[in-house]
Amino acid sequence: STNERTFIAIKPDGVQRGLVGNIIARFETRGFKLVALKLVSPGQKHLEEHYADLSSKPFFKDLVEYMNSGPIVAMVWEGLDAVKTGRAMLGATNPLASAPGTIRGDLCLQMARNVCHGSDSVESANKEIDLWFKKDDLNTWESAQKTWIYE
Ligand code: DAT
Ligand code: MG
């Protein structure tokens, strides 16, 4: 549906490398609507909760340390099939396997420095949006471009 929402984050390496504008521009120009955006350093506990499903993985500790190494741009984008399309725009988890044209395929090389996060299902999108944003942070507005992006 055209009002599906996904949680997209620019990880600390993306912020440090000055890729914030590049990554936001892709979602903006694709036609997605920005619902929420903030630069945050949410701390270890929050990041452990964000990646709770991976807590048994051997790379979990390094992953949380990486995510906790600097500010993160947290965003909610809305639009047609936003979760699946967002994942396609990110590219494969391992940047070496990400197609050129995707964020990871264009902007990074290693799994542990893969610059961005995107929700993998509508269910996890809802959970992640809830974890990262307060209800009041989610903006309800009608884009002036709406009728030029959707029939
Ligand atoms: P994604 O970020 O594509 O949703 P994921 O949820 O499986 O991938 O994993 C979260 C992050 O953890 C991923 O962006 C990079 C890191 N990661 C995943 N698998 C890894 C592995 N086998 N070794 C090291 N880091 C890994
Ligand atoms: Mg994931």
UniProtKB/TrEMBL annotation:
One of its GO terms (molecular function) is ATP binding. Residues 3-140 form the Nucleoside diphosphate kinase-like domain. Keywords: ATP-binding, Kinase, Nucleotide-binding, Transferase. Coiled coil: none annotated. CDD domains: NDPk_I. Pfam families: NDK. ATP binds at residues 11, 59, 87, 93, 104, 114. The keyword ATP-binding applies. It is an enzyme of class 2 (transferase). PROSITE patterns: NDPK, NDPK_LIKE. Its cofactor is Mg(2+). One of its GO terms (biological process) is GTP biosynthetic process. InterPro entries: NDK-like_dom (IPR034907), NDK-like_dom_sf (IPR036850), Nucleoside_diP_kinase (IPR001564), Nucleoside_diP_kinase_AS (IPR023005). SMART domains: NDK (SM00562). Its EC number is 2.7.4.6. It catalyses: a 2'-deoxyribonucleoside 5'-diphosphate + ATP = a 2'-deoxyribonucleoside 5'-triphosphate + ADP. The active site is at 117 (pros-phosphohistidine intermediate). Belongs to the NDK family. NCBIfam families: PRK00668.1. This is Nucleoside diphosphate kinase. It comes from Chaetomidium leptoderma. The lineage of its organism: Eukaryota, Fungi, Dikarya, Ascomycota, Pezizomycotina.
